[in-house]
Amino acid sequence: MTSNQKTLELGFIGAGKIAHGLSRAFSRAGCLVKAVSSRSTESAGSLAAAIPGCKACSTPQEVADTCDLVFITTTDQAIGVVAREVNWKPGQMVVHTSGADSADVLEPAAGNRALTGVFHPLQTIASINPAPDIFAGSTITIEAGEPLLQTLKDLAISLRAKPVEISGNARVLYHASAVFISNYTVTLANIASSLWQTFGYSRNEALNALLPLLEGTVSNLQNQGLPGSLTGPVSRGDTPTISKHIKELAEVNSLTLETYRLLGLNALEVALEKGSITPVQAKEITGLFADKERANEKNNA
Ligand SMILES: NC(=O)c1ccc[n+]([C@@H]2O[C@H](COP(=O)([O-])OP(=O)(O)OC[C@H]3O[C@@H](n4cnc5c(N)ncnc54)[C@H](OP(=O)(O)O)[C@@H]3O)[C@@H](O)[C@H]2O)c1
């Protein structure tokens, strides 16, 4: 962190999960988090109480008037509303932390000649009490022009995160990638755990049994990368096992079967790249999935 950032006064509009995480991490890194406002005074008060030297403000305008760099950390839908309702100063810095939106949503602030950008932590925060070093080792993606760009990179580094530039027009697919790896892992955990209910275990019991397997998978991804981490029946070209899965999943839930089928087709590409199955085996497995699709079509007709 440069001496310039030490004196930079940071503010937050929207005191939810990401604001709590970022303000705490910035404060621990020696940055001055000076002011916060939110839709409710309770949320702003709770964040201010956790950060030494931080004041709870009753309006977003007060935060903007007090701070050099303002983080709009509201829900995505409210970012543009806040950007419009504040009277920004020329040269003031304003960023949002949404993954999918570009800096264009801050156009009303840019219209007031404020410097606008995006500062998106590629991390998941599910409560207002995340680990204080939650961003250490994470990537933070940034969209901004200079001089704001360098300021945001330095701030990311002060959190021991890795700044990566992502342009505005790439942000939707970038965010879809985050949804796949994070939100859909949770969704897969739900599907996998729910299957245990068919043989008498609760979803939580199942989750406890499955979590070490997920941890092992993450560890493989860290150590072996892609495509080397893929194991299991698709990777082995084990058509009898896949046939049995398809037959029994069809009796459980058609959405679960469809998910199995589509992910299986994606797994085939990984297995082929890994070289653990031949193109002939891949064709045979593709046929199994396609057969099931035809069977579903027949059932629905
Ligand atoms: N959570 C994550 O894992 C994560 C990760 C990366 C990026 N983000 C991004 O960070 C941003 C915030 O997400 P979050 O998860 O922190 O959401 P959140 O926990 O739901 O917090 C949103 C906060 O915004 C406040 N708010 C809503 N409308 C407002 C308005 N018009 N004016 C002022 N404050 C308003 C809410 O106020 P009250 O509490 O006062 O009602 C709430 O505290 C989003 O852009 C999200 O995409 C989230």
Short summary:
The protein has 301 residues and is of the alpha/beta class. The protein has 13 helices and 8 strands.
Question: What brief labels describe this structure?
Answer:
301 residues, alpha/beta, Rossmann fold, 2 domains, 8 strands, 56% helix, 13% strand, disordered N terminus, binds NADP nicotinamide-adenine-dinucleotide phosphate
Task: Please give a structural write-up.
The protein has helices at about 5, 15-30, 40-50, 60-65, 75-85, 105-110, 150-160, 170-195, 205-225, 235, 240-250, 255-275, 280-300, and strands spanning about 10-15, 30-35, 55, 70, 95, 115-120, 140-145, 160-165. Strand 4 (about 70), helix 5 (about 75-85) and strand 5 (about 95) form a beta-alpha-beta unit. The model is unreliable at about 1-5 (pLDDT under 50). It has 2 domains: about 5-165, Rossmann fold (3-Layer(aba) Sandwich); about 175-300, no CATH class. An 8-stranded mixed β-sheet has the order 3-2-1-4-5-6-7-8, sandwiched between helices. The chain contains 13 helices and 8 strands. With about 300 residues, it is α/β, with parallel strands linked by helices. Helix content is about 55%, strand content about 15%. The chain binds NADP nicotinamide-adenine-dinucleotide phosphate. The site of NADP nicotinamide-adenine-dinucleotide phosphate has 25 residues, from helix 2, helix 5 and strand 6. NADP nicotinamide-adenine-dinucleotide phosphate binds near residues 19, 43, 73, 98 and 121.
